[in-house]
Design brief:
The complex is a heterodimer of chains A (about 725) and B (about 450). Chain A has about 725 residues and is mainly alpha-helical. Chain A is built from 28 helices and 8 strands. Chain B contains 13 helices and 14 strands. In chain B, α2 packs across α11, α2 crosses α12 and α3 runs parallel beside α4. Chain B is globular and about 65 Å long. The chains are: A mainly alpha (about 725), B alpha/beta (about 450).
């Protein structure tokens, strides 16, 4: 145990003070301060159970598994299906005979969606089959996804886990539908009176189960050869391997334990609440907080923190309910995450990172030389975009607008993640600040666009800078979680309430952009094109902004500031030693990224006209990050590629219009490709395209007896360059 | 030159192509677009058709609502131009209502097979699927606004998705039939609904609670969600109008165990009203009510009383307002609704959720298009038809559906929700539709 910092001491004393006050209050008024403890047990146990699975997965391979909730959901739906009808789902699979079937208009294969295993299947058999499915998912997760990623940067693992989340959630909807399901109770669920409070007894059973699992995990990892070896691998894999332990096997077993825990928890909880396709993913956020308080390594602390969060939630509810004069500012939902952010900032670099044999880098931040040919290429791209935006059929025009806004979102991640190397999971929250602010400044306050839009962007930057302060003390997975907590706090406190950065009533409205009396919203008249909506005026407006944004980020990459960012990304300590003001560079990068995020939000507001906070939630931030990574998170070209892949973007619409309508399979396919890219193509689509193009060019040059072009060598900035 | 990575990508692309191409045959809800109507011989006798002989009083009697002469072919003539009706269906992601597409298509197939379509022209449902995000809804709305042959759109988007799409459609002059998500759906020119929405449902609830159950004090449990928050003062005001005092409001979150918040409520109140977001939240709330042992009257909104939730029996004894009698076992028209859904529906068909609204809206749309001139209709004629529409024949709904609504509530075409009770895991409809006066809600528009 190391020496505690002053901040840690103050925090511990403050926490102890609060606990003492709570105990006194509970004695004085038990209905308000004691009953919530019992009422929080049920939710707390569920949060704790999910947190345990998260800790096991993190110990296995250093992954913060955002897909954990989706795994729990899938297994639970399998269980409910088996007990209801005996049907076992077959995930959507590719049909190898499609070309033949298409040519000859015949059907060779009719792939079933369900296999019936017997309608009168008992609960026990259903549990066994469901947990066997969990084992299978755990093995696939390890051997096909996270084993290849064991030396990959944190970002790749985050993206892969987001891919799992999207993939399994989509599989649930495709196979079981989106409706809520309920399950027969496994534990006795009659109410009992306990210390004067009426509580369902299944909560105690659940609590007991979690306690037993926690103790078993603790014993397993503390006293068994397997557990000790796994802990040792987490500290130093090379050393453990030299001692003859099989780190790969340990990780595989841990993954299976994690997914079985997820499935078991889902099966036990389903009778309490029913299950919806995103229920456990929503709960995952609270569990993440609990797991983080346990530093993703302590089962006991994570379980206790989960229980505490459940109890704290009930306590805050009761206080809000009893003290009507307290303003409802969403503090009940946001406080746990603000607390987590605070704890992590106080601790600094808190999360133990896995000591791998080698650590892979983030994708190269390629900076192409600006040659005449390349300029022509850019001009051609802009010209083509202009033509599509103005003259293409309307569905392609709309798709171009969606893609260009997606490019701007991706650019914000290119700056903060690609250049600076910091993972931010709050970019869509900052976009929301821009969107809500432009509605307030522009439509509500009646300011002209030329004032409202800059004010909205400044708002986004200010929020971003405040939220970025923790980045001065933490990075990597820890910063990812802190930014996620910040995004969630922004969402809860602002977007779900009426107010300046919140709703008008149930939605927010924004008038179309207008300059000098000329309106150029998506439905505004425009003199070019076919007159159908969206008209070309808004497209040109977005195109101009997107081009300027791309140029700005390209110039940033080549600027001294950009090189300093890359130096920070490469090695903060070395950068500081080389004279780089790391704190200033970080805040500057976050500020620039916030500007682009808010800009994307403002354009989204203009595009939609009516919108709500749901658009800017944390899962949207996760998706944006994942798609930016898929495109290529370190280059402007990657951002452009990512833009084509965004929801209703040009890539998606082209595919739907010209080839096949993916329709409800979009999220399923996207999840599959996210996983594939994270695992097998770290550079993203843009990096892959670039490397292939380079090979072709150099092949032709070699044919002509010329050497390879220097500019095609990956351009990586080292600290010494700065 | 072609390294392993390239081969992997090519393989992956091929997999995607094969996968995506194969998806269509894989119980794809999109496939329901192409659902063939059963052969004429499968259709029940024309005399089994619903009470379709009463043409709307204020409209030109459309073909679809006329009783055919004995022996006439009731199949629409497929060689004639179809009359298209647009449908924006939110059924591609997590927050999905697959029953809307399925039920609407089932009714269209029924109309083509048994009612002769519209003046003999087949009705074609032009479905645009969308997910949870508004981009898809906006894209659908733009598509319909740009389409020359779609003069009426059923907008089944939820909350802000619906608002974004309706803005575009109404702005483009396309008449819209929508869900009653918020006041804007009743107040926007060109937007109409047969969903009385939360204000309407609340009103019938409070009327019912006061008159039939003798409730004078109640606790409001409402989803802790921004879409519900603005309705708190609305519900308090409507309760007051009906002599009921809402003594407290408890916001329920989405945590799995709601015992704590529910336990905080006053058990002395005669009624507890749950206005919740979905069946899962409702299940947790019902469990909490059972744990607390509350013995008063429990009421819930239609989103809370989802089919899966009521089938568990957790809501037995509860009551709530619904738009249509479709999910009940003994309401008006239920036999005919079930026959249509069983005969023409696919796997996604159900009679709960938004099914009643979807069925009624589709019939409403077909009748409006018939009154607007069928194959010759325009957007203007459709708007005109909506401006004088009246019907007593919408399946599962009250006898008096008419547009426009009263006063400022021009979009409120149905002011008669139905109170239902839950018994043995099913809905029963012990009370008739309650006729409301929306103008008493005018105070909500002030400020």
């Amino acid at each position: 145990m190391g020496e505690r910092t002053t901040a840690e001491r103050v925090a511990i004393i403050a926490l102890a003070g609060v606990l003492v006050m709570w105990v006194v209050a509970a004695i004085v008024d038990p209905s308000i301060y004691f009953e919530p403890i019992l009422f929080g047990l049920g939710t707390g146990a569920i949060i704790a159970a999910i947190a345990l699975g998260l800790v096991v997965a993190y110990r296995a391979s250093g992954v913060i598994n955002f897909g954990h909730g989706a795994i729990a959901t899938y297994i639970t739906y399998v269980y409910v299906s088996l007990t209801d009808t005996g049907d076992y789902p077959i995930p959507p699979l590719p049909n190898p005979a499609v070309p033949i079937e298409a040519i000859f208009d015949i059907e060779l294969f009719d792939i079933p969606t369900m296999v019936n295993l017997g309608e009168d299947m008992g609960t026990g058999m259903a549990v066994i089959i469901s947990l066997a499915t969990a084992v299978l998912i755990g093995l696939i997760a390890h051997y096909a996804i996270f084993r290849p990623l064991r030396y990959a940067p944190v970002l790749a693992k985050v993206v892969a886990s987001v891919g799992i989340m999207l993939f399994l959630q989509a599989a649930v909807v495709l196979r079981f539908g989106a409706r809520a399901k309920s399950a027969e109770p496994i534990f006795p669920n009659e109410p009992v009176d306990f210390l004067g409070v009426r509580v369902n007894q299944d909560r105690f059973w659940l609590l007991g189960t979690v306690a037993v699992v926690t103790i078993l995990l603790w014993l397993l990892f503390r006293y068994t050869r397997f557990g000790i070896a796994t802990r040792a691998s987490a500290e130093n894999e090379r050393f453990t391997t030299l001692l003859g332990f099989n780190a790969d096997y340990q990780a595989g077993v841990s993954w299976v334990m994690s997914t079985v825990l997820a499935g078991m928890m889902g099966i036990l909880v389903a009778p309490v609440t029913g299950v919806t396709p995103n229920l456990f993913t929503v709960l995952l956020i609270s569990s993440l907080a609990a797991a983080l308080l346990g530093r993703m390594s302590s089962f006991v602390v994570a379980a206790a923190a989960g229980m505490a969060l459940g109890i704290l939630d009930q306590q805050l509810f009761r206080i809000e309910f009893e003290w009507e004069s307290l303003p409802d500012i969403g503090i009940r939902r946001a406080l746990p995450f603000l607390a987590v952010a605070l704890v992590m900032v106080i601790r600094g670099e808190a999360l133990p990172s896995r000591g791998a044999v080698v650590a892979a880098r983030l994708p190269a931040a390629f900076a192409p030389q600006i040659t005449r040919w390349r300029l022509w290429g850019y001009a051609l791209l802009v010209g083509l975009s202009f033509l599509v935006t103005v003259f293409a059929p309307f569905q392609f025009r709309g798709a171009m607008v969606n893609s260009m806004i997606g490019v701007i979102f991706a650019l914000s991640l290119v700056v903060v993640t690609g250049y600076l190397g910091q993972i931010s999971l709050m970019q869509m929250a900052l976009a929301g600040v821009g969107a809500f602010a432009v509605g307030s400044f522009g439509t509500a306050a009646g300011m002209p666009m030329l004032i409202a839009m800059p004010l909205a962007l400044v708002s986004g930057v200010l929020f971003g800078l405040v939220a970025a302060l923790p980045s001065l003390r933490t990075r990597g997975a820890s910063l990812a979680i802190v930014t996620l907590a910040s995004g969630l706090a922004i969402e809860e406190i602002f977007f779900k309430r009426s107010g300046w950065f919140g709703l008008d009533r149930t939605n927010k409205s924004s008038d179309p952009p207008e300059i000098l009396g000329i309106e150029f919203g998506p439905s505004s008249d425009f003199f070019l094109g076919d007159g159908k909506i969206p008209t070309g005026g808004f497209g040109i407006f977005v195109l101009v902004i997107t081009v300027l944004a791309c140029i700005a980020v390209m110039r940033l990459r080549r600027s001294r500031l950009g090189e300093q960012m890359l130096a920070v990304r490469a090695n903060e300590g070395a950068a500081a030693a080389a004279g780089v003001n790391v704190a200033a560079i970080k805040l500057t990068a976050f500020g620039i990224a916030s500007f682009f995020a808010a800009l994307g939000g403002v354009l989204t507001a203009y595009k939609l006209g009516t919108y709500s906070g749901a658009l800017f939630g944390i899962f949207a931030s996760l998706s944006i990050l994942a798609f930016a990574y898929l495109g290529g998170i370190s280059t402007v070209g990657g951002a452009i590629t990512a833009g084509t892949l965004f929801a209703e973007g040009i890539g998606v619409v082209l595919t739907n219009e010209w080839f096949f309508d993916v329709g409800p399979y979009t999220a399923y396919v996207a999840g599959f490709f996210l996983i594939g890219t994270a695992v097998y193509n770290n550079e993203g689509i843009d990096g892959f395209q670039r490397s292939q193009f380079h090979k072709v060019v150099n092949w032709f040059r070699a044919k002509r007896g010329l050497g390879p072009l220097d500019e095609f060598a990956p351009h990586v900035v080292e600290v010494a360059d700065v | 030159m072609f390294n392993k990575r390239l081969l992997r990508l090519l393989a992956a692309l091929m997999t995607l192509a094969l996968f995506a191409a194969s998806c269509g045959s894989d119980d794809d809800p999109v496939a329901s677009d192409d659902t063939e109507a059963p052969a004429a011989t499968d259709a029940p006798a024309a005399t089994d058709a619903p009470a379709a002989t009463d043409a709307p009083a204020d409209t030109e009697a459309p073909a679809a609502t006329e009783a055919p002469d004995e022996g006439d072919s009731m199949m629409a003539d497929e060689s004639l131009d179809p009359v298209k009706i647009g449908l924006i269906a939110q059924d591609e992601e997590l927050l999905a209502f697959p029953e809307v597409r399925a039920v609407a298509q089932a009714y269209v197939d029924y109309a083509n097979a048994e009612l002769g379509g519209i003046d003999g022209n087949p009705v074609e449902l032009d479905v645009c699927g969308a997910g949870d995000a508004p981009e898809g809804h906006v894209s659908c709305a733009q598509g319909f606004a740009n389409a020359d042959d779609v003069n009426l759109v059923i907008n089944a988007g939820f909350l802000s998705n619906s608002a974004a799409a309706s803005d575009i459609l109404a702005g483009g002059g396309v008449p819209v039939l929508t869900l009653g998500n918020d006041f804007v759906d009743y107040l926007t020119p060109g937007v109409f609904t047969i969903d009385p929405g939360l204000p309407g449902l609340a009103q019938v609830f409070f009327v019912y609670a006061a008159e039939n159950r003798g409730v004078t004090t109640a606790t409001l449990f409402i989803a802790d969600d921004p879409a519900f928050e603005p309705f708190i003062p609305v519900l308090e005001a409507i309760a007051g109008l009906n002599g009921i005092t809402l003594t407290e409001t408890v916001k329920l979150g989405f945590e799995p165990d709601l015992t704590g918040p529910v336990s905080a409520a006053n058990t002395d109140n005669e009624g507890w009203l749950f206005v919740l977001a979905d069946g899962a939240q409702c299940t947790a709330a019902a469990q909490a009510v059972a744990t607390v042992g509350y013995e008063g009257q429990n009421f819930a909104n239609d989103l809370c009383m989802s089919q899966d939730t009521i089938e568990t029996g957790a809501l037995d004894g509860w009551a709530g307002p619904v738009v249509s009698s479709a999910p009940t076992v003994d309401g008006d028209d239920v036999d005919e609704i079930n026959r249509i859904l069983e005969t023409y529906g696919n796997d996604d068909v159900q009679n709960a959720g938004l099914a009643g609204w979807a069925l009624g809206s589709t019939q409403f749309a077909i009748e409006v298009m018939a009154a607007a001139g069928g194959a010759e209709s325009t957007r203007e004629s459709t708007l005109d038809a909506l401006g004088t529409y009246a019907s007593s024949d919408i399946l599962g709904m009250a006898d008096s559906i008419s547009c426009p609504g009263p006063g400022a509530w021009t979009g409120a075409c149905n002011m008669a929700p139905l109170m239902v009770s839950v018994e043995n895991g099913t809905f029963t409809a012990p009370d008739p539709f309650t006729q409301l006066d929306f103008t008493v809600l005018d105070f909500l528009l002030e400020g």
